[in-house]
Design goal:
By secondary structure, the chain is α/β, with parallel strands linked by helices. The protein has one domain (16-286): Alpha-Beta Barrel (TIM Barrel). The chain contains 8 helices and 7 strands, in the order ααβαβαβαβαβαββα. A 7-stranded parallel sheet has the order 1-2-3-4-5-6-7. Helix 5 (128-145) links the parallel strand 3 and strand 4 (151-156).
């Protein structure tokens, strides 16, 4: 199940996992082996307010990834995460220019772009005016990102245990999915590969054959049996990233959520996005690494 990663996708040599592995090489060979396994996989780079000058950040990443395919996640929509663990986002008046800056930094670099995890699935937390604003921003983001000649653009579509496929398909249409290359499933979640493929195919049938990508970074054992979604224990790494899925309609299995980076300050974890060696080792062990 955990085959060699795709050689086409860029591996970040300065990921949190890579940096932590270097500190473990001599002191803890077993932990080093497991963390290095994670570090060796192509993983997405997330963009948000922490990215500073996002144009320069993307230009730097594009330069490092020359000859490979870069995976980027846009995560800066206004009212992000409905005020939960990953709350934040820019102002609506600034969002389009922020997206334009990403395109400018990307240039002709080949990239897979995952657009705003949870933004479509969490429409319910917004008042009607906020929902309309968000859908318009997502439509505009897709149109802007498609100006990048080397980019494939995927709108986030939640996961199979969230909304019925027909509900998600309708929301994706309203968010501009027909102008995108497709949609992304299971970002930062744990749903099984099989359930995501089935769910994605149902959505795809309502979107005139749009293709999709699946985040397999942490779904090796599926979701927590008690329904814990924030830093659950005893989960496992899933299928390694590849563009060769041998699955109709699925463009890629990706590690969008970086294993070992916390979901938030819950179940003993640090703040969202911070490196947490303990949970990384737990997932590696769960996968038999």
């Amino acid at each position: 199940m955990l085959a060699a990663p795709s050689h086409e996708l860029w591996v970040d040599p300065e990921s949190a996992a890579a940096n932590d592995a270097r500190t473990l090489r001599e002191s803890d060979p077993e932990a080093y082996r497991r963390i290095q396994y994670i570090a060796d996989q192509p993983m997405a780079h997330w963009l948000g307010g922490w990215s500073g000058d996002v144009e320069q950040t993307v230009r730097r990443l594009a330069g490092q990834a020359t000859g490979k395919i870069l995976t980027l996640v846009l995560y800066n929509i206004p009212h992000r995460d409905c005020g939960s663990h990953s709350a934040g986002g820019t102002l609506a008046s600034e969002y389009r220019q922020w997206v334009e800056s990403i395109v400018s930094g990307l240039g002709s670099q080949k990239a897979l772009l995952i657009v705003e995890p949870d933004a479509v699935a969490q429409l319910d937390c917004l008042a009607p005016a906020g929902q309309s604003e968000r859908l318009t921003l997502l439509q505009d983001a897709v149109k802007i990102l498609k100006k990048a000649p080397g980019a494939r653009v995927y709108l986030d579509a939640g996961h199979p245990a969230w909304h019925p496929a027909d509900v998600m398909a309708e929301r994706l249409l309203q968010a501009g999915a027909m102008a995108a290359d497709g949609f992304a499933l299971n970002v930062s979640n744990f749903q099984t590969l099989e359930s995501n493929i089935s769910y994605g195919r149902t959505i795809r049938s309502r979107l005139t054959g749009k293709t999709f990508v699946i985040d397999t970074s942490r779904n090796g054992r599926g979701p927590d049996p008690e329904g814990v979604w924030c830093n659950p224990r005893s989960r496992a790494l899933g299928r390694t990233p590849t563009l060769q899925t041998d699955t109709e309609g699925v463009d890629a299995f990706l590690w969008v959520k970086r294993p070992g980076e916390s979901d938030g300050s819950c179940n003993g974890g640090p703040g969202a996005g911070q490196w947490w060696r303990e949970i990384a080792l737990d997932m590696a062990q769960g996968a038999g690494i």
